[in-house]
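Checked the freezer inventory, then went back to the computational side. Two predictions to log before the end of the day. The first one is the construct we discussed on Monday; recording sequence and tokens without edits.
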Amino acid sequence: MIDIRSDTVTKPSKEMLEVIVNSEVGDDEYKEDPTVNELEKYSADLLGFESGLFVTSGLMGNQISLLNHTNPGEEVITTQDSHIKNYEHGAASFLSRIQFRNVSHNDGDLHLDDIISQISKSSYYKPKISTVAIENTHLASGGTIIPFENIKKLSEFTKSNNLKLHVDGARVWHAILEENTKANYGKYCDSLTFCFSKGLGAPIGSMLLGSKDFIANSREYRKKIGGGMRQVGIIASAAKYALENRSNLITDHKMAKEVFTVIKNMENKIDCIESVAYKGTNMILLNFDSLSNSDEFLKYLADNEIKAGYLREKVIRFVFHKDVTSDNKEKIIKTLQSFS
């Protein structure tokens, strides 16, 4: 079965398993796991931050960031369809006791004028806005890249208005590699998370990056919410291996683009597909005219040993990752071409 539901379904390669077996470990709660320490420094250096903290998930990293940046009752500006707002089980209201304020956006890229408007509307009767949270790449729009130049402009605004800027960068390496630029996020953002267990292909873990003081506080928050770990070098070694091989993500982009081109050429022949979107990374979104037709399409794929899934109602998502081979891609294309 070819599984393109998500890039979280990958399994460790033989090379990664060998790295895991040979991991050097220690007690991370004493900061004595050399593999974790090396991974945190390596990650921070790559993106221009002072320090890093290995956490179990992107959700944990995002929520620890909000605990750092906000006080109860404050607001965080983000998009209506952001992951941090919609797909983290209400953790922000439960842990930080804050709420979100939605602003308009172009596939995840916040409109600066709208943020300025929201800030100017603040008053005695409204919650204080303390943080802006962006998502790069933007999941809900199909993996859209927020240009780094736009992030720099947003940073100028947040700094001048005494706001914190957090980046949910679960798939940020897709953006960095596709833009082919050295993204010094640490210079412009207060915090950033990225996942090892999505496109990068490690089994577990995310990285939280920020200043030394921010990470010191984050280590305490991690402990308070049960995130402290011991001989965690076993999984940190897999994460470091995945990060060192991050250039392989470009292969996923190329496969997604090739399959998108095939679907786009078929679009007029398949009445039930209203639109198809590819935003330059590893995802394709197929928007169907009805739920019954999208269900039928998923069944057709499953009957042909291809497992896909919904992003939201009537929108099916294809996500390409390291376990999708060239032969798998060709089978996907042939299966799509046979659909009518």
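The second is the one RB wanted added to the comparison set:
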Amino acid sequence: MSVDPTAPPATSSGVAAPGARSSIGGHTLDRVIGSGGTGVVWAGTDAKGCPVAIKLLRSGGSAAARDARLTRLRAVCAVTHANVATMLQVGSEGGRDYVIMERIEGQSVADWLALQPAPREVLATLLAAGRGLAAAHEAGVVHRNFTLHSVLRGPSGRVAVTDFGTALGQLDPAAEKTTSAVAVAAGRAQVGDGVAGRPPPRQQHALLDAALSQGGVFVGTPGYMAPELFTGAAPDARSDQFAFCVAAWEAFSGQRPFHGESLDELARAPVMAAPPGAASLSPGMHRVLARGLEADPARRWPDLPALLRELARAEPPPRGRALTLAASVVALACLVTLLALLRC
């Protein structure tokens, strides 16, 4: 039996798919440990038996787009920083593009937040991730898809940004766009499992987190994308800054600063109004993040280090207000479970 090693795993058990390719680039594939819009991550070992993470990138797009992605990824190999997951090798074998990275045992910051860490720990974690992102920018590398899921936190507290440059391209605003959760055509969400005019539970949340693609090419995560990316602008350090501020806002308030029931609404939200005030953000933190969330890239912070300096001076919110995200996650899980039981 032949199994596509870049296909999403059938289960979340972490067990390798039977029949999957056993090695690539001289590295052994052991078991699937993650899957997302850009590909599937395997735990593996190198020729010396040392642990590595192997990301098999999803195919799609033109040969030129794939070549450009590989070029971007090779540039990441030159980035050396404690808060950046080290990229060891980039290549293509048997028609599969792959990335070999250091394996960091731990969890994504998105999952770590559910443990209800102290606000100062959250701030320190965000600042560390920001330093990693800034180091990449200094080397001319743009992340292109920064989210709370692309930051890992190890047992020792080390924070490392991963998944640099894996998005294949940028949007053509005139062409059709699709997401893994909803299909969008002519600005209207067409939901596969809902009744017309009555979206299924968590449709909006799914839209924010869905993998956005165009012509089979992954281009980003809508809830973190800067408004200019929806109109076809190329990702750059300023759009990374916007995504970082969305992630920081979410980490402290439990919700994204902008919402929309379709991709068009989501794209227009930062243009139509400034991010709302949030009781879970201190005034200083709100000021810093709101500037990074400006719809006009020229009005954002001049660079990420400038933003980080101001963010470090901002007081984190009181502990009770910083736990909103964890409470929201638990509440959503309970709601989904209840709805599932009611459908039985």
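For RB: Residues 1-19, 176-204, 320-327 have pLDDT under 50 and may be disordered. The longest helix spans residues 119-138. Let me know if you want it refolded.
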